[in-house]
Structures are given as C-alpha cells and as structure tokens.
Amino acid sequence: MAINMRRGMYEDFDMDRMQAGELAIVLGGDPNVASGKSIYFTVAPGDCRRLMTKEDLKSEIYNALGEITDELSSRLDAVAEEVGLAEKARVTAESSRKSAETARASAESSRVVAENARKSAETARVSAEASRTSAETSRVSAETARVTAESKRAEAAKEQAKSVTEAVQSIGDSKERANEAAAQATAAAGNANSVANTVEEKLNKGELNGPPGPAGSNGITIPANGLFTLGIEGEDLYVYYSDATTPPQFEIDSEGYAYWITPDS
Prior knowledge:
This protein is of the alpha+beta class. The protein has helices at residues 54-180, 185-189, 192-205; strands at 5-9, 23-28, 38-44, 47-51, 228-233, 236-241, 249-252, 258-261. It has a 4-stranded mixed sheet, with no helix packed on it. Strands 5-6 form a two-stranded antiparallel ribbon. A hairpin with a 2-residue loop joins strand 3 and strand 4.
C-alpha cells in the first residue's frame, strides 16, 4: 500500500479534505513556525497534527521561553504583589494582635485591681462584722452585769427592809421586855459602869457611830428620874429603866442606825 502525501502552500492546505494516514508537506507560509515550512499527518479528516523537527523544536522552545519569561515575570509580579498584600495584612494582623494583647493585659490589670478591691472590701466587711459581734458581746455582757447588779441591789434592799422591820419589831419587843425587867433595873444599876465601859469601848471602835444628828443642848441631858441602861442579849438590844420614869424613845433610820431621842429639857 503506497503512502499518500500532499504538498503545497499553507494557504491551500484544507484539513477537511485530508484522509486518515495522509501526510501534508507545507512548502511555505505556515504561521505556526518561523520558517513557514512544516509537515502534518492526518488522524482523521479535519484532524491534522503538525510534526516538529529539531530545528522547529529549538525555535519553539526559544519563542516559548519569552512567553514563559513574560508569564513568569507577570506571575512573579502578581505573587510579589500578593506577598506584599499578605505582608501588609500580616503587619495589620500583628498590630491588631498587639493591640488586642495590650487590651487583654489592661483588662487583666483592671481585673486584678478589681479583685484586690473586692478582697479589701471583704476584709473590711469581716473586720466590721467581728467588731459588731464583739460590741454585741460586750453589750450583752454589760446588760447581764446590769441585770445581775440590779438583782443584787433589789435583794440588798429587800434584806435591808427586812432588817429594818426586824429592828422595829425588836424595839417593840424590847419595850415589852423592858416593862417585865423593870423590877430588875435597880439590880442592874450596879452593872451600869460595866455597860458604860462597854459602850465607850464600842464608841471608840466606831461600832456605834452613825451619821451626825441635829444639834442639841450642850452636855448630857438625862433627867434625874430618867436613868436607864442598855444591855445586849444575843443579837437583841434591851433598855432597862424604872417604872417611875418615862420609857426612853429610840428610832432607826433607813441605813439601820438606832438613835436615842432625848426629851426636851
């Protein structure tokens, strides 16, 4: 089977008329190669593929290098621009990060200050509560002491009133016993000096001293018929006097002191 080839100028090359397996030799005018000369083989009508020689390849590579260089340069410029934009974005992001870090540090500092203020306030509150509790304890203690003192005072007043009552009753009883002992007055006169010495001794010791009474007449006022003696039996004070005389008068004040009321001269 013979190999069919066609040849001619490029402007006469009609790929649609080619048959599968045919070769087409372009003698000139091919714009795809620098020399204008080329060879095509047909895969199918309308589908012709150009074959390249070594010289064509070198020329194509040389021409492609310029395009590739331009493309690379353009792409490198674009990449550089993108890198510049990315760097600006990085710098902006870093500035934002630093600002955010500064804001975070400031917020943390504010939080620490607020926490310290909260702790100080809590410490002051605890101290104030302790002071309040201590004051309340002191108040309760003072109130307890006041109630206790008031109770003791009331008890003392009660005991004093009881003593006064008992003393008054004792004086009343003494009057009755004095009437019964009138017969013994004469016999007891001999003991007057002894009693007087005892009274003087007690006076010297201050046992019978009481608040000063109103001013009276100078000297000792004892009527001639008013002689009497005092005697102590147990815890009772007795007055001994003659039936022919007026019984001596005594009174006891609020503090329990006994006073002899002397008759007018």
